[in-house]
Write a structure and sequence with these properties.
With 211 residues, the protein is an alpha/beta fold. The protein has one domain: 3-Layer(aba) Sandwich (Rossmann fold). Helices cover 37% and strands 24% of the residues. The protein has a seven-stranded mixed β-sheet, sandwiched between helices. Helix 1 packs parallel to helix 3. The longest helix has 21 residues. The radius of gyration is 17 Å and the shape is globular. It binds S-adenosylmethionine (SAM). S-adenosylmethionine binds next to helix 1 and strand 2. It comes from Sulfobacillus benefaciens.
């Protein structure tokens, strides 16, 4: 999908995401996931700042989203919650940071939106420091056969209306990426996953010896 219509689609949803932040929907999952962010945090696809109420106050955040309206709401949320954050209005799929830039990378409900979620997961691997953490709360295809069938049928409609895929097998995507999963919880008939992961480093830096 072309970027501008997709960004507009999310711009229009910004008031809805702000309302959800204020109502603290998914509070228990967000609290559980976000107990331990440390140091310099990258939050991708920050939306209206739904995670900011749960961050410890000492972290320094870089928050990215390609929707200017979402960023506007997220700035208000950072201010309300006393979070020190720098904001970037950018497309995560076209963005690059130097290797090992962040202590913690946070992504909640974002893998449903990317064109190439596998490539984004592998970027997290690169951007996260070796002893850092990657914290994910993602939704996708249910483990319930009837529900997953319905999700597959409704996928193209969901993409057209809200810009999010419903038919992604999130755990398969994460398992196939370079990330190392340390802990995982699944909820809502296997549609929602909380994942605590760490990067896998070193494989590419082993020099090949010529004999
Ligand atoms: C379903 S919302 C989730 C927002 C927030 N993370 C949350 O947990 O409520 C998806 C967000 O991802 C953003 N997004 C989608 N694709 C993106 C991309 N390629 N680059 C940056 N932001 C993106 C949208 O603008 C939107 O704010």
């Amino acid at each position: 999908m072309e970027r501008t219509p997709l960004i507009r689609k999310f711009d229009k949803q910004a008031p809805h995401y702000e309302k959800r932040r204020k109502e603290q929907t998914q509070k228990v999952w967000r609290e559980t996931l976000l107990r331990s962010p440390q140091g310099h945090v990258l939050e991708v696809a920050v939306g209206a700042g739904a995670n900011f109420p749960y961050y410890p106050k000492h972290v320094e955040v870089t928050a990215v989203d390609f929707s200017p309206e979402m960023i506007r709401k997220a700035k208000e949320a950072a201010h309300e919650n006393g979070i020190q954050a720098k904001f970037m209005t950018s497309d995560i799929e076209r963005l690059s940071f130097p290797e090992n830039s962040f202590d913690t990378i946070i992504s909640t409900l974002s893998l449903c939106g990317y064109q190439n979620p596998s490539a984004v997961l592998n970027q997290f691997n690169q951007w996260c420091k070796e002893d850092g953490a990657i914290l994910l709360m993602e939704h996708g295809l249910s483990s319930h056969p009837l529900l997953s069938r319905l999700q597959r049928i409704l996928d193209s409609l969901a993409v057209r209306v809200v810009g999010c895929h419903q038919n992604r097998d999130i755990m398969q995507l994460i398992h196939a990426s370079k990330l190392i999963i340390e802990k995982q919880e699944s909820h809502r008939l296997g549609m929602v996953h909380l994942v605590w992961a760490r990067p896998q480093k070193g494989m590419n830096s082993i020099p090949i010896l010529e004999i």
